[in-house]
Amino acid sequence: MFFKSAKINEFRLWGLIFTMAGMGIMILGTAGIVLWGQAGKIVAGIFMVFGMIALLISVAVYFWAGMMSTSATMLQCPECGRQTKMLGKTDRCMFCRTMLTLDPSQATEQPSEELKA
Q1: How many whole angstroms separate alpha carbon 54 and alpha carbon 51?
Q2: For residue range 79-95, what is the model confidence (pLDDT) as tens digits?
């Protein structure tokens, strides 16, 4: 993972980045009209197309994150006690960022008997 957060939250972050980038590109494109007048309309049109492509990519990323979220394993974080979602064998808690795993070979500590009850 690139950032130290849950995998689903990372995908949502990338969707947000593409949304903001797309909107920023379109806003910068409209500055072409202010700077170059009639010739700037061509620049604005090109930037609008690139901005829309970035927004469509963000829609695809958000859709993909949503589909993964529906099939994610739900479990209770042993550190903060909140319900969290987990993708793959290892992931981080969505709230406290504790490393979680379902693979016993990668676990660092066995839970105590009093936590199981």
Answers
A1: 5
A2: 888 999 888 888 888 88
> Which three-class secondary structure state does DSSP give residue 96?
coil
Tokens matching residue 1: 């993972």
| Residue 22 zone, left/alpha/beta (φ > 0; ψ -120 to 50; rest) | alpha
Structure tokens at 92: 């981080």
User: Is the four-CA dihedral 106, 94, 58, 54 of positive or negative sign?
Assistant: negative
C-alpha of 35 from chain center:
35
Q: Label residue 104 left, alpha or beta by phi (over 0 means left) and psi (-120 to 50 means alpha).
A: alpha
d(CA 78, CA 86): 13
pTM, two decimals, is: 0.77
